[in-house]
Amino acid sequence: MKKYFLLAIILLCTMNSQAQIVNERNKERIKQTIKEGFEDVKEAIKQNNSLPDEHEQWDTYVVPKVGLNVSNMPGLKGDPKLGPVLGVLVEMFITKNLAMGVEVEYTQQGTSGVYGGSGKGPYSYSLQYFNTSYLVRWYPRRFSRWSLYTGLKTSQLLSSNVRLKDEAKTNMKDKTRNGDFFIPLGMSYEWQKWQIDMRYCISMLRLRKGDTNSEPSLGAARNNMFQVTIGYRFQVL
After folding, report:
1. Which of 85, 81, 82, 84 is nearest to 112 (CA)?
2. Among 104, 148, 173, 237, which residue has the least CB neighbours within 10 Å?
3. pTM of the predicted structure, to 2 decimals
4. Cis ω before 80 (30° cut-off from 0)
5. Which of 107, 66, 108 is nearest to 88 (CA)?
6. pLDDT tens, position by position, 2-60
7. How many CA atoms does the CB half-sphere of 140 hold within 13 Å?
8. What pLDDT, in 10s, does the model give residues 83-112?
9. What span is annotated as the signal peptide, if there is one (predicted)?
């Protein structure tokens, strides 16, 4: 038993000595491999943050997008309301710095926490729209991730409802203007094929149709909204 124990100790010592020799021989190689790996990571980060590709004239993109709409209805003294945004943008570059596009989207807008003239409330308004936007986008520099845009946005009302707390909703479509016009002001940031978009939309029309002020009422309300979306750019031409 002692003989086997002694042999085991000798074997372990031999293996340890060989490992030390191997480690000494490979020490510089291991250090070099780590250094090269670190340089590769730095180069990858540098490439990802390098200047984007320059857009060429007639480049055409399709951009599905999704995001959130923060809306309010000034004139009703309510609170902002969150709603979804779903859409698709088709955009073509007229020059290397200038693009024109058409966008269709679905938005849910409204406001909450509204009290009527009699003090009754709170009311929550919810409006759904199908929108079409005609946009002009400008890149300040030849190689730029940032762009600015504006244009004209038209909206077609899909539904208009108001709900008093703990009560059933009331259909307001017959009291709401069927369409709306907006001036969008926005900016976008592109990273690889992703596009983050932020815009503020200025409404041109009041929402109320007719002169009725019976509660619940739209009063002198207009649409007011800020959108944040993220899209994925597919180049088709």
Report:
1. 81
2. 237
3. 0.76
4. no
5. 66
6. 444 444 444 445 445 444 544 455 556 656 765 665 565 455 445 445 566 778 999 99
7. 7
8. 999 999 999 999 999 999 999 999 999 999
9. 1-19
